[in-house]
Amino acid sequence: MNAQVVGRVRRRFATDGVEATPAAVVNAVRGETGVFGNTAVLRLADQVRGELVGAGPLAPLLADNSVTDVLVNGMQVWVDRGAGLQRAAVRFQDPDDVRRLAQRLVAACGRRLDDGQPYADARLPDGTRLHAVLPPVATCGPYLSLRTFRQRPFSLDDLVSCGTVAVTAAPVLAAVVRARLAYLVTGGTGSGKTTLLSTLLNMVPRSERIVLVEDAAELRPVHPHVVALQARTANVEGAGAVGLTDLVRQALRMRPDRLVVGECRGAEVVDLLGALNTGHEGGAGTLHANAPGDVPARLEALGMLGGLPRAALHAQVLAALQVVVQVRRTDRGRVLESISVLEPVVSGSERVTGVVPAWQVGRGAGPGAAVLGRMLVERGVAVPAALRPPVGSA
Prior knowledge:
The structure is a single chain. The chain is an alpha/beta fold. The chain folds into 3 domains: 1-53, no CATH class; 57-150, Beta-Lactamase, CATH 3.30.450.370; 156-387, 3-Layer(aba) Sandwich (Rossmann fold). It is 34% helix and 22% strand. The chain has helices spanning 2-16, 22-30, 38-53, 59-63, 95-108, 156-161, 170-178, 193-201, 244-251, 268-276, 295-305, 310-320, 369-378; strands at 69-73, 76-80, 85-87, 119-123, 129-133, 143-147, 183-187, 210-214, 226-230, 258-261, 284-288, 323-330, 333-347, 350-360, 364-365. Strand 4 (119-123) and strand 5 (129-133) form a beta hairpin. It is elongated. The N and C termini lie far apart (78 Å).
């Protein structure tokens, strides 16, 4: 009965072309026969409006602060609350409902999704990232992937209290930011890189200017002087694209005290390294890497996209970056796994980048602790206890 009412009201708005304001939806639902009581009317009105202008049956999941990802496979809905995927109780009537929802959400963001363009990336007004794929490319689809965006900022103490950052590691991270060391937050997809980077940017002195360059605006540091630049994809005619490389170059003309690239994924890494080598200390970014030791190879691959030879790339990296902060996704949630330093290593006849752990979860200080400690002392920052050798050790 409810599904029939929702369907009739939805078709009425589609036919009449009337704006689906909350009041108009309530009046339309109230006008349907067989619906009694204010509670039922308001509940159905919310459902109708969600299907007309919102995320439809996915709206309650996206509103759940514990949900980080909502995935739709055909008619199955899965959610991730930080501990792996779980089936959700949400149901669609048929794949056409999923298709209509995907096309409406994508169209509202100025993108195209149809048989001629069967996949699309979009960002919803609340910041949620959407990716959609239609059949026949999606063999059992349509497929929807939504990554939620939470406005609530996290402090370092918040990450310590929830177990993401160890108590001993928190002062090390704070010292890295205070010393204006350049760092990369690395990890796999969904490991919490952006959340940790945003938290670290919260600790930048209020007298400094942060310029953010992102493919999709996700970083929201709590800081009084933040300037954000976001890449733009091409329009339906294939024109108007603005890439990260262009934005990094623009950012350099904006007097950044801290230049931050939300995610290094292409040739823009060459411009970032160049910027960090020309006096822009304390810069940061995120990078996909399964382990800290994979970072040099990832940077090599990205540097090649920008036309930078291998030897030159390593020379730039060693001069520009000092620290790698690795995060990992576990069954218990997202955790800071290690803090490492970048050091030169001789490989054959070349001087390349090596990654040496300075602190590791469950192990404490690593072989790179002394190196990181010296970097901090040189910049007038006290060495945290987690990086000091045990009392009485040689």
